[in-house]
Amino acid sequence: MLTKTLAQLRTALLERAGIDSTGTSVDLTPTVLNEFVNDALYEGHDIITGKWADYFTTSTTINIVAGTQTYSLPTDFSKLRRVWLLVDTTTSKYRRCLAVDLDAIHEYTGVTGTDQYYRYALIGQQLYLLPTPGTSLTAGIKLWYIPEQAELVNDADTASFDNRIEYKLILAIGWRDILDRQELDPSPAVAKVNEYTAKLRTAADGRDADQPFYLNPRGETRDEDWEEIL
After folding, report:
1. 3-class DSSP state for residue 52?
2. DSSP state, 154?
3. What phi and psi, each to the nearest 5 degrees, are found at residue 209?
4. Which residues contact 38 (CB under 8 A, 6 or more apart)?
5. pTM
6. Stronger pLDDT, 43 or 130, i.e. the higher one
7. Looking at residue 108, what DSSP letter applies?
8. Bridge partner residues of 3 (DSSP)
9. Which of 122, 178, 165 is nearest to 145 (CA)?
10. What residue ranges do the domains of the chain occupy?
11. Residue 77: enclosing H or E segment and its boundaries?
12. For residue 215, how far is the Cα from the chain centroid?
């Protein structure tokens, strides 16, 4: 994993653009370069999550309060991946909570929920638990989500990159924006952005090189497993 400060990213961006990083520029001031770096990080974040949804996925726990239907999302929330309900505190067993559309929320009013029956709705910056939880469900919600890209403000602020392809993608995006600002042909940088975007999928697929994914939690299905099911 690579970790770079905002100051280091500014220097690397100028070097990638073929500009002397030791000199000064009326056009490419530190403030302008900071904007380019952050814009590149935001765009790169969207590209990466589009190629591999769980690249940045994290989780948090929200405590359920009886009689409370709405819960605030994390401050760095960007996109929701999964909602789990803690249904057994002794065994720490979770059950996946399914989504309900706004058009169907009224169906969950005036009823008592069970752990199999609860649904959620994502409205604005609030998570709605439906129906309103009673005293039988007071454990917690595990929220899996993609966080938004944090803005780098101070020179010592850092950004981490899992591999060099991700790092090169960010620099290529910034380089493209520099060429565009200077009214130069951005096609060389655009080609690099496309190249690194294509390579990123291969890099992301190789993150878990242990075993293939299985939808069956028991792993690969064997002939004797089918006999047990039948």
Report:
1. coil
2. S
3. -100, 10
4. 151, 152
5. 0.78
6. 43
7. G
8. 160
9. 122
10. 2-54+162-205, 58-147
11. strand 77-88
12. 22
